[in-house]
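Per your request, structure below.
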């Protein structure tokens, strides 16, 4: 499989002796910072006790916060170091070690998890750190896992992303990609606290569902 932009970023950070994303969020957690904004919005979208898939779950801050709110959450990530950090920090968050471009219902059911979710969350710039040209595959894989009334919460930077290895993912290209896999727009915001999106904005949050 092609190397992800995430792996390129991590290799560069390691070479520079930098902790990167994992160390950053460990520090914020120690400081008591609010790192649950994405989870609060996902919680609003979900029925109580929902099944939620956290796609690219990282150190577990989003999935962990959703477990704490009573949801049944499955985190999916493929970075061994970040999976270890998640296990240590949020031991109640179950994890599947899998690339999102290889994620299938069979892979989840083999690990003992459902194949249909009320909410799928893919936040924190995951979409701009995938391997080149796998965005549509990942969106298609996540769409298959949405229940009939399921919703996909996706957020990423349109400009000024923290990692220099992130791709630029223009809004019209993202729209073409999600429509091509059978998704439609429910909401578009500029932030997880629902600031209105305006053209040229630096960050975009989408709530998507299967096209009707
Ligand atoms: C910036 S972190 C965000 C993590 C988490 N969503 C959050 O908001 O805290 C990006 C995550 O995407 C994961 N990632 C990137 N490409 C991936 C892929 N192809 N399959 C699975 N995970 C991937 C990385 O391992 C990393 O944990």
């Amino acid at each position: 499989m092609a190397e992800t932009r995430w792996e390129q970023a991590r290799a560069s950070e390691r070479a520079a002796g930098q902790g990167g994303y994992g160390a950053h969020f460990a520090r914020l957690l120690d400081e008591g910072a609010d790192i649950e904004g994405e989870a609060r919005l996902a919680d609003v979208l979900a029925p109580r006790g929902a099944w939620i898939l956290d796609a690219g779950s990282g150190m577990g801050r989003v999935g962990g916060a959703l477990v704490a709110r009573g949801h049944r959450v499955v985190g999916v990530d493929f970075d061994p170091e970040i999976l270890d950090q998640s296990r240590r920090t949020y031991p109640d968050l179950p994890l599947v070690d899998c690339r999102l471009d290889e994620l299938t219902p069979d892979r989840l059911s083999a690990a003992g998890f459902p194949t249909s979710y009320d909410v799928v969350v893919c936040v924190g710039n995951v979409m701009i750190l995938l391997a080149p040209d796998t965005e549509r595959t990942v969106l298609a894989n996540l769409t298959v896992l949405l229940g009939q009334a399921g919703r996909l919460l996706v957020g990423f930077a349109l400009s000024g992303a923290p990692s220099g290895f992130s791709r630029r993912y223009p809004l019209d290209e993202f729209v073409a990609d999600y429509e091509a896999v059978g998704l439609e727009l429910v909401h578009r915001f500029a932030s997880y606290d629902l600031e209105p999106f305006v053209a040229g904005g630096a960050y975009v949050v989408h709530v998507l569902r299967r096209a009707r």
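Residues 5-210 form a domain with the Rossmann fold fold (CATH 3.40.50.150).

Regards,
D.
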